[in-house]
Design a protein that fits this description.
The complex is a heterodimer of chains A (about 325) and B (about 240). Chain A is mainly α and about 325 residues long. Chain A contains twelve helices and two strands. Chain A is globular, with a radius of gyration of 21 Å. Chain B folds into two domains: about 5-80 and about 155-235, Rossmann fold (3-Layer(aba) Sandwich), CATH 3.40.50.300; about 90-155, no CATH class. In chain B, the strands form two sheets. Chain B has a six-stranded mixed beta sheet with strand order 6-7-8-3-9-10, with helices on both faces. In chain B, about 45% of the residues are buried. Classes of the chains: A mainly alpha (about 325), B alpha/beta (about 240). Chains A and B meet through α6 and α7 of A and α2 and α3 of B. Bound molecules: adenosine-5'-diphosphate and magnesium ion.
């Protein structure tokens, strides 16, 4: 048994990590702006998966067109963004304005999560499929254009997802640094009172942050529809754990570190678990006579283990680590040789 | 002289915490009103209330005769009120240039650029710091950046909350000189909350003494300085 996983698995791990990265980045954004830990975030991402499924059923059923990778994330992202805005304006903001604590708001997001989950499940249960007979739990893996990498046919979404993450992050970065509304968003995150003193409509900034966060989640969710063995909104209950782990590992102080945290945790869950499993089974099982069981189902142990490590040894997350010092140290060690 | 801002029987606070009671105050155009009082007497809360950052339970606030009691801060800012909080009056994580851009928020690009050029002439040291993060500036430089940021909007009224707190004497002196210059050369109206009562009362026109959230004195700054009883009791001014 080789230690390193094969190409297909590595690509799907990268795609998963990119999706978690986008979700953790959005989660960090709304946490930074409105101070609300959003437990509905993964289910908001599932809106994107549901939209993708419906698009496949109605439009892209036998076209095999690359357009699905453009239209899916945009439509899924837009739907999720709209829901994010609705959730913030109709429920969370009124609750916050009435002086509810973070705990109260967090519970509210849990309630929204359950409601949204049921709505999405209901839609997929009740909506008659045009081509796909049963939408709930439908497997859409076969509906993506085929692509070859190093002579092997791979799921094209695994190539598209990391590229999409890169494009969206770049656009988001340009928005934050090059547009005055983006600079105002960073300013509001640092000091909302002062931002309002500068004439910034803080409440609008908050609303837009929920829209952006929703869009990132929906776009990721749309592409992740191809990763599931069946599109079922209930998957979000597992995903949200990883998304929070990614945000916490990132440090919850910077959207970029949120992205990196998500990618790190996503990779640890997939590649990390598999590599550890392979090591275990090729070295420890024969060597020490340990029970020959598979460890690949213990993904969440990896992500939550990472969270505990980070909270113990780097309470500010990866963002709080003095990378400059570490780099200098590495350089000096190299130079000393 | 026309009235710039006026509070009428204002009661305000944070949520259920009622902090200031029945406050009446009036500031005329071109005046420096110095606000003094013991720690926790509600000076900062008064400024925040003028700017719309607290909950107003009753009373009215008029700016140039218009009722702004229910207006949110960003609207008050557009009307010409600048508020420089005690701490956090610049964006530490943004560059000096981005700070100045934020100060021009909502202004047309060409006007914004012109205004920034204009204030850089008033505060030349900033020209050499444009790309630096604001957190790298010294305490005095930060106050001056905050002042520059307020000025790009050409406010009519500037409200300073303890602008010299924590500054070295030389830096504090520079900040005070700039405040006086704002009034003398630019004709601005100023509300100035200051811990160092003696210093501010000597420079100001009128004074407001806050004690336990109420107005204990509202009148000439020099007379308050001369009032041994009030001075000794509340301001640490030796009689
Ligand atoms: N955000 C807040 N929430 C509740 N109470 C506050 C808040 N800010 C200040 N206070 C209280 O209001 C009172 C007046 O504070 P403040 O206006 O800062 O006084 P001063 O500026 O004169 O020192 C104090 O008792 C303080 O504890
Ligand atoms: Mg104060």
């Amino acid at each position: 048994m080789p230690i390193l996983p094969g190409l297909t698995y590595t690509l799907s791990s990268l795609a998963y990590a990119a999706a978690i990265g986008l979700l953790s980045m959005g989660l960090t954004l709304t946490y930074l702006t409105t101070k609300i830990p959003n437990f509905a975030h993964a289910t908001i991402g599932m809106i994107g998966s549901v939209v993708m499924l419906i698009l496949i059923d109605r439009i892209f059923y036998d076209s095999n067109s690359w357009l699905i990778f453009l239209l899916g994330p945009i439509a899924g992202g837009a739907a999720a963004a709209a829901f994010g805005v609705l959730m913030y304006r109709a429920i969370l903001k009124p609750l916050a304005d009435r002086g509810n604590s973070v705990i109260g708001l967090m519970i509210a997001t849990l309630a929204v999560d359950i409601i949204l989950l049921n709505i999405l499940t209901l839609i997929l249960n009740l909506m008659p499929g045009e081509h796909i007979p049963k939408l709930i739990g439908a497997n859409v893996v076969g509906f993506q254009p085929k692509i070859r990498v190093a002579g092997i046919v791979v799921d094209s979404y695994t190539i598209v997802l990391p590229i999409t993450a890169l494009v969206l992050t770049t656009l988001f970065h340009l928005f934050l640094t090059r547009t005055s509304f983006g600079v105002a968003m960073r300013a509001t995150i640092e000091n909302p009172d002062l931002a309002s003193a500068m004439g910034v409509n803080v409440s609008l900034v908050y609303t837009v942050s929920w829209a952006l966060s929703g869009f990132l989640a929906g776009a990721a969710g749309a592409l992740m529809a191809f990763a599931f063995k069946g599109v079922d909104p209930a998957v979000s209950a597992l995903v949200i754990v990883t998304v929070f782990a990614g945000s916490i590992v990132g440090g919850l102080t910077s959207v970029y570190w949120g992205l990196i945290g998500g990618i790190v945790v996503g990779l640890a869950e997939k590649l990390g678990t598999t590599i550890i499993n392979n090591l275990y089974r090729t070295l420890l099982v024969p060597g020490l006579g340990l029970p020959n069981i598979s460890l690949v189902n213990y993904e969440k142990v990896m992500s939550l283990g990472l969270v505990i490590m980070v909270l113990l040894y780097a309470p500010q997350g990866l963002a709080g680590v003095d990378w400059g010092r570490i780099l200098r140290k590495i350089k000096s060690v190299k130079g000393g040789r | 002289m026309s009235t710039v801002i006026k509070a009428e029987k204002v009661n305000a606070g944070y949520g259920r915490f009622h902090i200031i009671f029945d406050v009446d105050v009036e500031v005329k155009k071109g005046e420096i009103l110095v606000v003094v009082g013991p720690n926790g007497s509600g000076k900062s809360t008064l400024l925040k209330t003028m700017f719309g950052l607290t909950r107003i339970y009753s009373g009215r606030i008029l700016f140039e005769g218009r009722d702004i009691t229910r207006e949110p801060p960003h609207v008050r800012a557009k009307r010409g009120i600048a508020y420089l909080p005690q701490t956090g009056n610049i964006f530490a994580e943004l560059s000096v240039r981005e700070n100045l851009k934020m100060a021009c928020y909502g202004l047309e690009q060409s006007i914004a650029e012109e205004r920034i050029r204009e204030v850089l002439e008033f505060f030349p040291f900033l020209k050499y710091k444009l790309s630096n993060k604001a957190k790298t500036l010294s305490g005095g430089q930060r106050q001056l950046l905050a002042m520059a940021m307020a000025l790009v909007r050409r406010p009519k009224l500037l409200m300073f909350d303890e602008p010299t707190a924590g500054l070295a004497p030389k830096a504090a002196k520079e900040v005070v000189e700039k405040i006086l210059w704002l009034r003398e050369d630019l004709g601005k109206t100023i509300i100035w909350v200051e811990q160092n009562a003696k210093l501010a009362l000597e420079k100001g026109d009128n004074a407001l003494l806050m004690v336990s959230g109420r107005v204990a004195y509202h009148g000439s700054a020099r007379e308050l300085l001369a009032d041994r009883e009030l001075g000794r009791r509340y301001l640490g001014v030796k009689g």
